[in-house]
Structures are given as C-alpha cells and as structure tokens.
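Q: What would this complex look like in 3D?
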Amino acid sequence: MKKGLSLQAMKCSESRYSRCMYFASGALARKIEKLAMETWRKVSLSPSHGYLLMMVLDQPGIQPGSVAGQLQLSPSTVTRLVEKLEEKKLVTRTTDGKVTRIHPTAEGKALYPELELCISQFHEKLDGLVDRTSADHLIRQINQVTDKLPY
Amino acid sequence: MKKGLSLQAMKCSESRYSRCMYFASGALARKIEKLAMETWRKVSLSPSHGYLLMMVLDQPGIQPGSVAGQLQLSPSTVTRLVEKLEEKKLVTRTTDGKVTRIHPTAEGKALYPELELCISQFHEKLDGLVDRTSADHLIRQINQVTDKLPY
DNA sequence: TAATTTCATTTGCATATACAAATGAAGAAA
DNA sequence: TTTCTTCATTTGTATATGCAAATGAAATTA
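A: Here is my prediction, written as structure tokens for the whole assembly.
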C-alpha cells in the first residue's frame, strides 16, 4: 500500500536533526510552499507571484521596495517576480526618476476574485490539517523570532 | 546612519501578510538560512552540505534516501548535495545493486571538529538573538505542525 | 554648481530545491 | 523463467531566492 517512501518517510520530529532551528524552519517552509503551490496552480501562478499580484491590486502604484519589505523578500527577487507578472500582462511598471511603480492591468484586475479564492482555499486546506488556534499561535511565535533576526 | 533600507525595512509582524503561514514560515526560513550560511562559510560549505557531511561522518555508509528522510529533503536534492561533496573529495559513493552508500573520505573526517564548531556557533549565534527557551519551544511547535502536513 | 553620497532598482551570477521521467536492480507473480 | 511491480537513485528541467556589482537618479555637501 504505502508507496515509495520506506527510506525517506519519517516524521521530522523523529530525526536527530529536528531539534535544530535550521531544519525545523526549512522543513516547515518547504511543506507550506508545496501546499501553497498546489493551491495557486489553478491561476498558473506561484504563491509568491499570486500574493504579489494581490498586493498590486490592493495597493496600485506600489514600489518594488515596499513589496520587498511587506513580503520579506530581497529587492532582486521582487524584480524577477514583477518581470514575470509583466510578461504575463498582469502588471506594468512605470519609472519616474528614482521611483518605480507597479500597476495592475485590466487582465490582472480580472483575476482578483480567483486570487481571493486561492488565499481562502489555502487557509481552509491548512485548517483541515492543523487546528486554527495552534496555527495562529505558531504564526505569532514565528514572527516574534523572525523580527529578532537580522536582515 | 541607517543604510539602504527605508522602503524594505519592516518588521515582519507589521506586514499585512505576516499573519499568513506562507509568509511567516518562508521569512523565518530565509533569515535562518542566511544566519546559518554565515556560520558555515568558514568551511566553504552551505549549511545543507555541512549537515549532510556531519551525517555521513556520524553514520558512515548511510543511504541517500535515509539522508532525505532525516533532513526532510527530496531524494534528488540529496543526490545534488552528495555530488558536490564528492567533487570536493569529502565523501565517496559506492553502489551495490539497489543500494547506494555514502562514505566519508579522510579529508572529510578531518573536517569533523570544524563542523561541530559550526553547529555550536550557529546555536550560540541564535542564543544571542532569541532566548533559548522560546527557541526550543518554537522548534517543537514547528515540528508538530510539520508532521501534520503531507509529504 | 560640482562632487559626493545615498537610494531604489536591476543585472549577472550562484545556490537551493523540487517534480517528473529515466535508470537499473530486486522481488513477486504468472 | 519471464514478466510485472516496486524501490532507490539519478537526470533533465524548472522555480525560487539571494548577494554583489552596476545603474541611474535624487539629495546633500562643499
């Protein structure tokens, strides 16, 4: 019945490395990323691209640096993400002197309901696996620690 | 004084996206990865490579699939990691039928003390930023959630 | 105003990671 | 034994991400 996992299958808490923040944080992030990827696939966007587009829809004219701050990504990563959304004709960039602004296109705007659906489905999916209270608590704790770590 | 961070600088808990597990886990993992990278730089290894080598030293003859399970990485990722350690002459691979085993070289073994140092320095560095009890607590909580998420 | 510094963004390059398909071998079933 | 299935690993390809250097413009200083 159980397929292809005899060696790999392992609860992370059974690993001798699981007590290390490096693995704990990495393993969680990879699994969450995967879960999110499944959710956003229906709009042919990665979760990062999806959230970025959402931000641009909520805050039209937003600057890349502000995206980087809010999404906790490096400026260069934001540039790449925006490039891809631009290729897909979902956003445009305008530059005025030092300031670059990202604007949604009509096509991008049209995606709003679906993006909202992705977000709520992602949260539902998570709710089905982890009870809401402990997830919320975990998120708060993670953020507390993240805020203490250097940029 | 403060340099180059006006737009990006932001506590993650101030972001409207910080309440989402996707960002919380990703942001934490990226910051921890960075912290760890600084620590392992002195042995010219990424943290993943360092931990993998450590595992091979602790469990000589270990199979890639078991590494994948313990480190919560995909088998293909483990293959790439091992390839690089092999290039650096720190480990060798032997294949006997279906079974592949990873063995440390003398050069790899010689690195053991330094690897231990990296691990303890990483933990010290973390201790300097986040108090030990809450870090341990967080790790346990993360692992609990991770274990509930699908492979 | 000219020179310097700061800032936001982008580019070039490198790393980390995964999925899906391919490989090669072992075990089970016919 | 021949075939089919399962398994562990590897390979091909793709995504995500970051650092350091480059760019171009604004702000500050001299």
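A: To summarize the key features: Residues 44-148 of chain A form a domain with the Arc Repressor Mutant, subunit A fold (CATH 1.10.10.10). The first strand of chain A starts at residue 91 and ends at 96.
Q: Very helpful, thank you.
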